[in-house]
Amino acid sequence: MALGHRVETLVLMRQQFRGPMLAIHHKRLGAAMLYDVFERFHFDELLSVEMANRELHARIQQKIWRYYQPKKKVVKS
What we know:
By secondary structure, the protein is mostly helical. It is built from 3 helices and 2 strands. A two-stranded parallel sheet has the order 1-2. The radius of gyration is 15 Å and the shape is globular.
C-alpha cells in the first residue's frame, strides 16, 4: 500500500490511536516518503522486512516498553 493513497486514514489513525505506530517497508523509501512517515503521519518507527528477526523484535519491544512506562509528574517549584 502506498501511503499517499491513504492519507486521511493515516491521519485519523494517529488522532485516535495513542500507542506506538510502526511502518514496515519492503523496499527502500525515498526522502519524500520518509518525511511523510515521520513528520506528516507521526509514525514512531520505520522498519524493514530486510532486518533480522531479532532486530525487528527488539525495536518493536522497545517502542512498546517506552509507550507504556508510567509518566513522571513534573513538580513545579
